[in-house]
Each structure stands twice: as structure tokens, then as C-alpha cells.
């Protein structure tokens, strides 16, 4: 997948919480309405996924990963920034996804009684990359698959991923690249872990692959 990080800055109107409904406008509340609009964009991006992502129920994921807002519990939040991660398909241009995000946030602001007069600011800072697809007919895939089958007795399953990896740097340079490694669980979560038995199997597969790929005895 391609991946885009972006940040939405929202300004509210501070006031004492006791008079929040008459004097203040909460930037954190406004941020939830922007997130709801971005969820609609997420649904649109998932409506008709191209192959090979049509095998996934929900390949494109919007993730509000960081939120920072307010300065005191009894004050209506005067500011809020939400940082998001959004994916795109391999043939999609991240620049086009940026345009879609900007249009989505702008449309949500226009339809909001408060945000129409105080539009949020969208910033594209940090990660931005395109996705890629490597043909299953590439010799490197056949060679690694052969080594895998020699060790485990079955051919490997070739699958797309809804994440991104550094393999894209090699693909950009014209080097067909795949990702292969030990079995992991709870990735980026609590108790993230790797199977020790599959770690040994992976090392053996890679050793056979390197031997055959390099024409060694």
C-alpha cells in the first residue's frame, strides 16, 4: 500500500466549562466531526478495491494516531490537532490522496456552523509514499518459493499487505522485491512477538535461497 500521514489543526473558542454551551466552542468536539467526515472518505476508498486488494473486506484504513488538544480540564478546548494515517492502493498517487483529504476536510468545515467561519488547517508533514505490486512471475519469487517448499514441504502463500514496507525503495530502483520473515503476532500492539520456531525456519529458507540464487554449491 501507499501511505499518507497528515495533521488537522482546529481552533476553538475558550471559555469556562460552566458556560461552555453559551460562550465557548470546543476544538476537540469539532475534531470528532472532522474525523467522522474522513471516515466517509475511508468508506469511499474501500467501495471498489482493485485486485489484489479485492480479497480484503476493508483494505484502506484511516487511523487517527495522535490527538493533542486543550490545556485544562475546566476550560473549553481552544485548540486541537489530530494526526492521521491513511492508505492508498499501489496505482494511486499520494498527491491525489492529499487532494481528496483537503477536499473532504474543507467540505466538512463548510457544512459545520462553527468551522465554516474558522476552517481547519490540513498539514502534510511526515510520511508519504506510493505503493507497489511485484509480478508473481519474477524469478526471485520462484526461487524463494522453492526454498520455502524445500524446508516446510508446502509452497508459500503469496499475499498482498495492507501496510507498507521499505521494499518500495528497491522497487523504485527497478529491483523486484518481496517481504519474507518469521511469523509475528500482535504487530504494533501489546505483547508484540515473533515465533522462535518460525525464526529458525526463516533462517533456513533464506540460506537455501541465497545458495541457489547465487549459484553456490
Provide a brief overview of the structure.
By secondary structure, the chain is an alpha+beta fold. The chain has helices at 20-23, 27-45, 94-110, 139-152, 167-172, 196-213, and strands spanning 2-11, 62-69, 79-88, 121-123, 128-129, 184-185, 193-194. Helices cover 36% and strands 17% of the residues.
Give descriptors for this structure.
6 helices, alpha+beta, 217 residues, DNA polymerase, domain 1, two-stranded antiparallel ribbon, 36% helix
Helix/strand order, N-terminal first: EHHEEHEEHHEEH
Largest sheet: 5 strands, antiparallel
Dominant shape: elongated
Question: What are the low-pLDDT stretches, counting only 5+ consecutive residues below 50?
Answer: none
Blueprint (SSEs and pairs):
Layout: E1 2-11, H1 20-23, H2 27-45, E2 62-69, E3 79-88, H3 94-110, E4 121-123, E5 128-129, H4 139-152, H5 167-172, E6 184-185, E7 193-194, H6 196-213
Antiparallel strand pairs: 1-3, 1-4, 1-5, 2-3, 6-7
Helix pairs in contact: 2-3, 4-6
